[in-house]
Amino acid sequence: MREVQMDLISEEKLNRMTSMEKIRLILDKVKTGRIVVLESGLTPEEEVRLIEMTMTEIRVDEFSGIEIESYPAKREGSFVSRILGRGSSKGRMTVIGPANQLRTVEKDQYQISTKVSVGD
């Protein structure tokens, strides 16, 4: 039986990294077949940049892309700042893995259920 490696990355570690460092860390891990779980998630801008970088690195025979799921974001800041788009928004937890291995089955505000497929 083949094993799946999961890397659970703390919010503390993520807070010490720049956006590009986070994205590079995630891509490097997922490209080796690991499932990455981020305790504090990514900002919407970081998710977009991760997807953009993933698209440039896809190789049919090596790397098929990523699957990414986050709990719904909690918006921080006052009601007025959120209306004006100035409140910060960040995923609470994010699960990222190789697109050919990780599939989201169900997601709600409290739980993300995924299936991991492993080849022989």
TrEMBL record:
It comes from the Archaea. InterPro entries: OapB-like. This is DUF2073 domain-containing protein.
